[in-house]
Amino acid sequence: MIVAQDAIFSPFFATVFLKLLVWVYIYIRHISFITSRKLHPKDLAAPGKLAQISLPNVSNPLDSLKNLFEIPVLFYALVSYVSIMKQVDVMYVNAAWVFVAFCALHSVVHCASNFVMLRFYLYLFATLTVSFIAMRVTLIHFNV
Question: Residue 50: which residues within 8 A CB-CB, separation 6 or more?
Fold first, then answer.
């Protein structure tokens, strides 16, 4: 099946949008926590201070955002390579959407319930998806 070369950028920008959503959620949680506790900005000036005094439902979204800057960096590089080399096909696009889905589910679990084992498996499957893309890119690049 023929697919447009720019089709790979829909999942690319979906991960960017996911980051922005988590970022907004972080600010909502942090601002409501700070205002409800009537904290002064100087009380939070030391790095990590907010994380020390806040509840998990306030600090977990920040950890989720940090995760969204780990494996997705490889994803962005691979998507860019596949696009530049004009190798976008249905398999890459589908794998990219699978990656986005697992990242989104991981963020929802991390921000909402933080069920650690479920979160671990979602992150693992997202990582395996990027690994699949990387292996396929490598094999095609070296004509293996």
Answer: 30, 33, 34, 44, 58, 59
The token pair at 46 is 């030391």
How far apart (Å, rounded) are the C-alpha atoms in residues 21 and 54?
21
**The Cα angle at residue 128 between residues 122 and 131, in degrees rounded to 5:** 145
Cα dihedral sign for 127, 74, 62, 20?
A: negative
* pTM of the shown model: 0.93
Which CATH number is correct for 5-141, 1.10.357.10, 3.50.30.30, 1.10.10.10, 1.20.120.550?
Answer: 1.20.120.550
Q: What is the pLDDT along the chain (144 residues), one digit of tens a residue?
A: 789 999 999 999 999 999 999 999 999 999 999 999 999 888 888 888 888 898 888 989 999 999 999 999 999 999 999 999 999 999 999 999 999 999 999 999 999 998 999 999 999 999 999 999 999 999 999 998
Which structure tokens are listed for 134? 């990387």
Say if CB 61 and CB 25 are below 8 A apart: yes
